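ingest -> validate -> predict -> emit
validate: passed (alphabet ok, no gaps, 95 aa)
predict: started
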Amino acid sequence: RMLEDPAAKAYISWGGDGREFIVTNQEEFAPLILSKHFKHSNFSSFVRQLNMYDFHKTNRAPRSQRGTAQHQLWIFSHPRFVRGRPDLLQGIKRK
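emit:
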């Protein structure tokens, strides 16, 4: 639902092939978007939850190139999280 929310488009979107999603500007994403969809607005907790359901961060920037939280891209994927395929969601299980 978060990815379909028009208010969230500036902060979270599908990747080009629909097999990953991208979070931009985590400092604004957390209080503005997470708090609408979850009981918290903690980005680290959001990432932990993704990891618990076997999502993987796919962009690996060297430490020297990471920059500020405001400019980082966080790209996550899961084989069963695909744009336009809600039928696959039931296969996403907690580890």
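The two ends are 22 Å apart (CA to CA).
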